[in-house]
Write a structure and sequence with these properties.
Region (Disordered): 61-215, 227-249
CATH architecture of the domain at 249-348: 2-Layer Sandwich
Biased composition (Pro residues): 66-125, 194-209
Radius of gyration: 67 Å
Transmembrane segments: 12-32
CATH topology of the domain at 249-348: Fusion Protein Consisting Of Minor Coat Protein, Glycine Rich Linker, Tola, And A His Tag, Chain: A, Domain 2
Strand content: 5-15%
Keywords: Membrane, Transmembrane, Transmembrane helix
Number of helices: 9
Distance between the termini: 151 Å
Biased composition (Low complexity): 145-167, 227-237
Strand order of the largest sheet: 6-5-7-8
Number of strands: 8
CATH class of the domain at 249-348: Alpha Beta
Structural class: alpha/beta
Order of helices and strands: HHEEEEHHHHHEEHHEE
Largest sheet: 4 strands, antiparallel
Length: 351
């Protein structure tokens, strides 16, 4: 049997190691001492109830300070004696105002003359009698050989060149020029001593010519309009077209429904929705509207701006729906050639 020396050497080494370990475990306590642990300290514990703990942790009550007494106001100082008023200055004597001269009242204008003559005649003296010619008063003279008969002063009746009417009397503009241009009446002169003269024969009074009335522009305009209406033919001549009977209710409703389909009132303002407009339109024989003839002939219920807006909406509806021609009977063209439509947001009528 062959021995392997290296195997035995390992056995020896392993055994020696195990022996050393066992010796350290057995004898290791001799060379190592465990550290001493500190002794825990004991504390006294006291148990409290919740009420006692709340009383201990509550902040101490602080007594409210007593209110301070109100300050005593200092006595008011005695008022100083008022100063003696200064003596009032003596009033300065005002000079007496000079008397204002009273303006003389303007003389009243003479009453309007009732007679119209080519030349104006002033108002006669109150004592004078109305006569065709003016004549001074003559007193009888008994000293002369030939006795001159006494004659009273005469004057022609007052006349004017203007026709006085009620409108002229009440119109301040027509009276103003006469009042401004009327001269101030002069003082009545002293009567001269009568001179004995031979009285001229009294001429015959000329016949009064009728006064020429002022032209009335209103009457002339009315007369011209009547003459023009008489010369103008009563109806405009148009080519012969079929007249036929009037449109029936169903035909009117058909035209109204056709126009109403294109009548959009959604874009109208609240004021325009309360406005009713009446539109007139001339139709062609093919049923198409003449665009240039569409016009507004009346409106009610709104302002002018609202009426224009409602009319434009109605005009677009007629043009849009009438572009292909309305379904109207040709044999009744004279009845629907001129149409009036009333566009009312509540209802629409056709005439």
């Amino acid at each position: 049997m062959v021995r392997l020396p290296h195997i035995e050497t390992g056995t020896y080494i392993s055994g020696a190691g195990h022996l050393a370990l066992l010796a350290w475990l057995a004898l290791g306590g001799l060379f190592y001492s465990a550290p001493e642990l500190p002794v825990p300290s004991a504390a006294d514990v006291v148990l409290f109830s919740e009420a006692e703990f709340a009383a201990m942790t509550r902040a101490p009550e602080v007594a409210e300070p007593a209110p301070a007494p109100p300050p005593v106001p200092a006595p008011a100082p005695e008022p100083a004696p008022p100063p003696e008023p200064a003596p009032a200055p003596e009033p300065v004597p005002q000079p007496e105002p000079e008397p204002v001269p009273i303006p003389e009242p303007e003389p009243a204008p003479p009453p309007p003359a009732e007679r119209v003559a080519p030349e104006p005649v002033p108002q006669p003296e109150p004592e004078a009698q109305v006569a065709p010619e003016r004549q001074e008063a003559v007193t009888p003279d008994n000293s002369g050989a030939e006795a001159v008969p006494a004659e009273e002063a005469t004057a022609p009746e007052a006349a004017t060149t203007r026709i006085i009417t009620e409108a002229t009397e009440t119109d301040p503009e027509s009276q103003a020029p006469d009042l401004i241009a009327s001269p101030r009446p002069s003082a009545r002169p002293d009567r001269p001593r009568p001179v004995p003269v031979e009285a001229p024969p009294t001429p015959e009074a000329p016949p009064e010519t009728p006064a020429e009335t002022a032209p009335d522009p209103v009457a002339d305009a009315v007369a011209a309009a009547v003459a023009e209406a008489a010369e103008t033919p009563s109806a405009v001549s148009r080519p012969d077209v079929p007249v036929g009977p009037p449109l029936t209710a169903s035909e009117r409703d058909g035209l109204r429904v056709a126009v109403q389909q294109c009548w959009n009132v959604g874009s109208l303002s609240s004021d325009a929705l309360r406005t009713t407009v009446t539109v007139a339109v001339e139709m062609e024989q093919s049923g198409r509207p003449v665009i240039n003839s569409i016009r507004m002939i009346g409106s009610e219920g709104g302002s002018d701006a609202a009426a224009r807006q409602a009319f434009e909406t109605a005009r677009r509806a007629i043009i849009r729906c009438g572009s292909a021609g309305f379904d109207l009977p040709v044999e009744k063209y004279a009845q629907w050639r001129d149409i009036e439509m009333t566009f009312n947001p509540e209802r629409m009528r056709i005439r």
